[in-house]
Request: fold
Amino acid sequence: MNRRNFIRQSLATGTALGMTGVFTANAYQAAPIRIGIIGLDTSHSPAFTKIFNVENSKPEFQGFKVVTAYPHGSKDIESSVSRIPKYTDEVKAMGVEIADSIQSLLKKVDVVLLETNDGRLHKEQALMVIEAGKPMFIDKPVAASLTDAIAIYDAARKKNVPIFSCSSLRYMNSAQQVRYENKIGKVLAADTFSPATLEPHHPDLFWYGIHGVEILFTLMGKGCESVMRYNTPTTDIVIGQWSDGRVGTFRGTREGKHEYGGIAFGTDGNLVLERFEGYEALAAKIAAFFKSKQSPIDDAETLEIYAFMEAADESKRKGGRVKLKDVMDKANVKK
Reply:
């Protein structure tokens, strides 16, 4: 039995060669949950590494360590490719080994952060992680198409591998208060906004509009039936109608100051969302997920978000209202 397995068995039984629980505590500290990162072409990678690897970290981040990273990564999105050398140096300075392949990384880690900025690579990379049976957080976007997103979730379900994905904006404190703390009573409607810069290899809202759309679904929950999109070179407005008659809107901006926010309307009042507070709230949910193996978000809600954005593209093409069921059916046929 190797040292790591010995420690894990000792922890499970509460004993180690007749020694006391003090040894157990020390053994736990010596054997953190090993995190691997795939993709060093986004600022999220060094940000998460710093959260998990700094000394004297908050209790929710203790017992974890980013140990290995595979840097690639988009090959043709220049804004991503150009970041890889800098972010590689940053994570190496925090004690992270650089792997030469995903296969090599998977042999050295317990869980995975799939951070590759380019959603086109996510299906191939995610399926490798799923095949290895490693719990995985997939950073936005889940994939570069609704079809690929469905395929990833289907594969994870069939292999019984826990995964979850979201934008960090879901965990704005004020949005969580509305959704889970009954801050304004029943949510009647919501309007949200975020930057919606475009990337030609991805559906329009997948690349950056996902942030504001994620806020919208955090407030409203799942149940959107159809969308109508109004589009100009500088702005997108997407109006969603929910099955219970509620209406939620997303505004995506491509000019002016880039900010994130919105307003939720409830039976007990209205709430303007606070500013985005950073990545720690999401990192805490990731840490809890890696321990519990239970996603904090219903898979169906995540896929509905991508159906919403795919339907928004279809509405742009057709110039009218599009039902989410139609785009889901179409995507399922393609996969």
Remarks:
- The chain has 14 helices and 13 strands.
- The two ends are 42 Å apart (CA to CA).
- Residues 170 and 215 are 5 Å apart (CA to CA).
- Confidence is low (pLDDT under 50) at residues 1-28.
